[in-house]
Amino acid sequence: MSCPYKFGYVALLIAEFYSDASILFTAQTDYAPYFYDNGPNSNNGNMALLNLSEDTPKGTQIYVLNGTDPEGQPVKYGMTFEPGSKEYFRVHPKSGAVTLIEELDREAQDEIEVFVSISDGLNKVTEKVSVFVMDANDERPQFQNMPSIVDVPENTTSGNSIYKVQAVDRDTGSGGSVTYFLQSSEPSTKFAIDHHSGVLRIKPGETLDYEKSRTHFITVVAKDGGGIYKGKHQVMSSSATLTINVIDTQDTPPVFVGTPYFGYVYEVSSPVSIHHNTTSMHLFCTSFDGWKGISIPHHWSKCSQYIYSGADGVFAINKTSGCIILKVYPADLRREVYNIKVKVSPEAKRLDFAVTTVTIRVVDLNNHPPTFFGENGPQNVFELTMYEHPPEGEFLRGLKITVNDSDQGSNAKFHLRLVGPGRMLRVVPQTVLNEAQVTVLVEDSAAMDFEKSQFLTFKLLAVEIDTPERFSATADIIIHLLDTNDNAPKFSSDFYIARIPENSPGGSSVVSVTATDPDSGLWGVVKYSIYGSGADLFLIQPDSGIIYTQPWASLDAEVKSKYNFYVKAEDTDGKYSLAEVFVTIMDLNDHSPAFNENSLEKTMVIGAPVKIEAIDEDAEEPNNVIEYSIMKSDPDDIFNIDADTGEIKLKPYIKSMDIVQNITNHKDCTWSVVVQAKDRGSPSFSTTTVVKIDITEATQLKGPLTSFLMKSRENPLQLLGLISGVIIIMVLVTVFISTIIYMRNVKSNKILPSRRIIKRKRKPRRQDDFQQPFREEHYGGKFRNEDLESPSADNINFNNNVKVCSHRVPPSPPNVPVMPPPLPTHYRHGERGWTVPTVSASVASKTKKRSHRGKDNPVNTALVSELKLRLEQKNMANRY
What we know:
It is built from six helices and 58 strands. By secondary structure, it is mainly beta. A hairpin with a 7-residue loop joins strand 39 and strand 40. The chain is flat. The protein starts with a helix and ends with a helix. Pfam families: Cadherin. It is found in: Membrane.
């Protein structure tokens, strides 16, 4: 066999061997399980490149490991970390659920390396994956160079940079950007800060002035750009205080303070030692820069003072201290008043100077001004701490002040006066001789308010009364007020008005109320609550004052559209105030119009309308305002409809059944009309219905009146005119009849002349016995009724009051004394005639005569009536 063939054979044997080995190996191999790689945006797989926010709560399931085994064997999952590193996650071996077990902090560690494994029991596969911790806005800006104190010369030019504030926020993105703001306690700050660089400058147009304000306190606020933290957007900030000290520069000429100056030398005083230069008085010199000779002695090195006239060689001045000294004994003084000119100028600027006049008077005795004393000796500042609003009339117990003037007599008499804000306090006594205990009384308690001012400063003045020097002394009283709970929370408004749509879900925000309490500390904390008959559907956040609907509340404007209740703001001490909340439920168009089923079949008389009606249950306009329209009419459209009222009428040209029958061949004259009712809401809802209308004609009446009324249907004014005419005629007839009746009554009641009175000659009177006028034996016989005459008188008024006697009358009573003859006057209507028989039984005249009165005698009653009648007749005769 040749070589090529040998090599080919060997290669064939080798290939067969490997082929058999491969088949054997394939039959016995178990493949390893593996993870699914679903990418970084999936929540299951091998956890590679997982992004996890640092504000994820501990215990949250953050991922699910997911893999498989090629042979379908069950798999288990595992998780390990680098030795010594913190374990942040835990995995469930069967489900693969990965849980966060430690808090994350991106600023401490922004990448976590994890070894995840999957095993089918025989094979185990481990992968190293990285979990990236994403940033949340949980860090505040931190100042690098604050708080700090800066010295700035008062002559610094406006606009110049005086400081650069630096703050760092370790968050990333917008949460790591820092902007700067100023929060100044002063009314108008002189400084401005660049919001981005933090450079603090003096505002353009502003200057610093040491004499007005030596120190400025500025609060700098650093805010980040905001970011998401635990699902909510929040902005975090920090603040720090920058103290700016204004450095004085010599920029104004000196000025004397407290001018004019007066000095006194008492001639009885002890001699002044020339060698020791004993001080007689001090001058106070200052500039607008604020340096003072006596209170800040070292500043006097900047000023030179000297006397240039009026001293006469007996006075000298210390050029640096401003002290004027007496060089001779007081007894050697030859003048009573010395006017000394003193000049002062700064050493740096000789051209800037000031001149003042010092008047020194040589007097006797009064050489002690009033002096205030405390517990430990002379004192000019008294401090007290007390609660605000003390009772009026109470004295301030913490102040122990004594005032004294060592002089005698009138030189020791002085006034006390308290000067300060308002009239809060009053001092007693007001006039003192030599010495007194000073008492300060509360006069206006309401003005002593911690919320207005936390400390009060008063000046206590003692000024001599009867001395030419008017020596005085001052003392400062500083009162530090402590806060009390004297204010109730106050709402920003007495009432709140809110509107919320109906069908709003439970827990919807309604309105936010705000109340503030100016008290400090816990007394200024406000809690909110609501109550009232209308508060059942609402609740309020106790801290924020935001009012919500109850989670279960269902608002329906058709059921109730107005609610009102009270909200209460209360502090921790129980003081509260109330505000009323008015809530209006806004109606939504959630109901369709509905037709009245009773109005869908109508009978129409020609000339008269029929009306259909639909109701919309919405609560407000325009949601419940309905418009009517005819969509279709069968067989023909012969109707018009009022869009507002729903009245259906025949078209104007249809005035009889003949026209209707000419329009259609239907004998029953019944129309089917499709009517639509549509509301005006948004969106608009509509409903259609079919109205059956049976057309008929009214029953014809006969007669001219019926004809006239039928014609009047077309002209209603004609019918109205007829009715008005009938009413006017009836009124005229009534007035005429009433006038006739009135005239007749007036005529019947008129008093006519008494023509029926018959005058007769008087007969001689007889002596009658009125004791027993009717005894028969007294007259010697019976009464006689012979020759009885009844004068006839016409019954003029036909009232039947006069009767004519045609028969014999019974015996009359005896005659009464004769009355005087009647006056010729008118006869009164209704007058009745009467007769009285005489004793001799003769018939007397009917002329009225006076009779003796008796209580039970009818004759007496008639006489009284007759007398009244005569008087009335006499009065009438006098008129005519």
